Amino acid sequence: MDGLVQETLEARRRIKQYVYKTPLMFSDPLSNLTSSCKVFIKLENEQLTGSFKIRGAFNKLMKLSSAGDVIKQKGIITASSGNHGMACVEAGKTLGIPVTVYCQQNVSEHKKNVLLNKGVRVVLHGVDCVEAENEGRASAEKQEVEYVSPYNDIYVIAGQGTIGIEILEDCPEVDCVLVPVGGGGLIGGIARYIKQVRPSVEIIGCQPQNSKVMYESVRAGRVVFEESLDTLSEGTAGGLEDNSITLPICAQYVDDWIMVTEEEIGRAVVYMLQNHQKVVEGAAGTALGAYLKNPGRFKGKRVVLIACGGNLGIQTLKQLVSMYT
Ligand SMILES: Cc1ncc(COP(=O)(O)O)c(C=O)c1O
């Protein structure tokens, strides 16, 4: 069996006692937007720490722990736009591993405050997440401690891939999965597992038009360095680490890409609140917005949308509600 599929199954066994199996919620209103379509939403916004990131964080930190106690003394360094940092801190608390988090200077205020309120050591560096990542990695090398990438790591990817296992368990007839993409750990894990087990399932990557580095990198066949504009989907925004292992995985397994505007993301977040009484963050709005943009494309299909996170600040939520209701 493919190595990463095996690793995904192992990740499931490793993290099962620590993370939720999130609901795959059927959405009547979304399904009714086109004929013979059934839409399900994977509610990772209801996951521990408010996003799927806890899956990869636990898998990686448990793997590091299994090598001995030195990790507990030294701790780890990671870099994050917020959610992966929160997830590493939570996993670190359970496993007794101290965590330092590098974030870009313009990290979401809401996510930064969640980290600071937990007493986490946060280092702010650069304006793009990839600058914080490079600095975090360099600092870890200098101090000879482990660096945990938010996506460029086989164990992190395998942890996120456990979502793929749950989707096939709960909706074996799925035709199509829409996944928000930043560094590509989430889609990489899901796609590599599902394509191995059910190759006919279509995997669609969703990104904001304002920041679509993975999409452009797949097109170019190498990591491209392009500036990202501000986006409501700050969780997926920014550049990609050079030689990222998620790039070849996306190039091989992602069938199609849909880009969404800021308005489409904002309206999707409000749609979830109005129709399902769920708060999702902008990153989740990319997958929901990609479906809402053109439901007719999914006629006759069983579609899964990944609601990857729910960590949205109250001010942003207030603004979106006032703009789109
Ligand atoms: C809520 C949310 N969704 C999606 C992503 C993108 O995940 P990945 O970098 O694995 O593509 C992130 C990354 O931080 C995130 O926080």
Task: Give structural notes.
The protein is an alpha/beta fold and 325 residues long. The chain folds into two domains: 3-51 and 154-324, Rossmann fold; 53-148, Rossmann fold. The chain has 14 helices and ten strands. The strands form two sheets. Strands 1-2-10-7-8-9 form a six-stranded mixed beta sheet, with helices on both faces. Strand 3, helix 5 (83-95) and strand 4 form a beta-alpha-beta unit. Helix 3 crosses helix 8 and helix 10 packs across helix 11. The longest helix has 17 residues, at 154-170. Pyridoxal-5'-phosphate binds at residues 51, 53, 81, 83-84, 150-151, 180-186, 235-236, 281, 283, 308-309.
Q: What is the N-to-C order of secondary-structure elements (H for helix, E for strand)?
A: HEHEHHEHEHEHEHEHEHHEHHEH
Strand order of the largest sheet: 1-2-10-7-8-9
User: What separation lies between the terminal Cα atoms?
Assistant: 50 Å
The residue fraction in helices comes out at 40-55%
Q: How many structural domains can be distinguished in the coordinates?
A: 2
Q: In CATH terms, what is the architecture of the largest domain?
A: 3-Layer(aba) Sandwich
| Heteromolecules bound | pyridoxal-5'-phosphate
Secondary-structure-derived class: alpha/beta
Reported for the largest beta sheet, the result is: 6 strands, mixed
Pick out the low-confidence regions: none
What would the average pLDDT be, to the nearest integer? 97
**CATH hierarchy, class of the largest domain:** Alpha Beta
Strand content: 15-25%
